[in-house]
Structure formats: structure tokens, C-alpha cells
Amino acid sequence: MSLVLQVQGGVMVLCGCCHAGLLNTLNQVRSAFQQPIVAAVGGTHLVRPTDEQMRHIVPVLHSYGTPRLYPNHCTGQSAYVALAVAFGERVATGLAGTELVF
């Protein structure tokens, strides 16, 4: 289950936990709303991704125009590090109590 919010410049996706897959979820949002995805916040369901999965995920996320990413509860450390290396300061933790302004 995800919540899509209209924000300046496009939409922000708040993911409960991407059991359907982060890329599947973002693809569905892009298809349904036909607006840029400026941020994805929440559980990515990447607790223990393989290197192969991350090699696939990172370029696809780049194709979205590098949205800001705030992964949390079901995002494993290795996925967080891979995303942070690939996207730099566009990745930050989205822990409980984090306030985001769009």
C-alpha cells in the first residue's frame, strides 16, 4: 500500500512496505499519475538484496530523474549503502519523526 501526494514539481510516494517491489510500485505511480516522482519515502522491501538486484534497481531509479529517497524500516543496510553511493545526498534516512518539506 502506498500513498501518493501531489507536491511541487510532481508527486511523492509514501510506501508502507514495497512488497510488490520498489520499481513496480514507482512504475505504477508513474503510469497512473504521469508526473515526475520527486521522492520516495518509506519501506523499500530491500532487506537483503543481492548485488544483481541492486545493479538492476539503481539504473532504473536513475531513469526516474533521480528522485530523493528516504528509505526506512524494511530497507537493509546494504541496500541503503548502495543507494547512498549511487545517489549521494539525494538519499537520507526517513526515520519515524522525520519532517520532510516539499
Describe, in plain words, how this protein is organized in 3D.
- The chain has 102 residues and is an alpha/beta fold.
- The protein has one domain.
- It is built from three helices and four strands, in the order ββαβαβα.
- It has a four-stranded mixed sheet.
- The model has no long low-confidence stretch (mean pLDDT 92).
Weakly predicted, low-confidence segments: none
Q: Helical percent range?
A: 25-40%
Taking the sheet with the most strands, its summary is: 4 strands, mixed
The whole-number mean of residue pLDDT values reads 92
The succession of helices and strands, N to C, reads EEHEHEH
SS element count, helices: 3
Percent in strands: 15-25%
Strand element count = 4
Give the number of domains.
1
Write down the overall geometry: globular
Q: Give the strand order of the largest sheet, numbering strands 1, 2, ... along the chain.
A: 1-2-3-4
Q: Structural class, from helix and strand content?
A: alpha/beta
Terminal residue distance: 21 Å
Radius of gyration: 12 Å
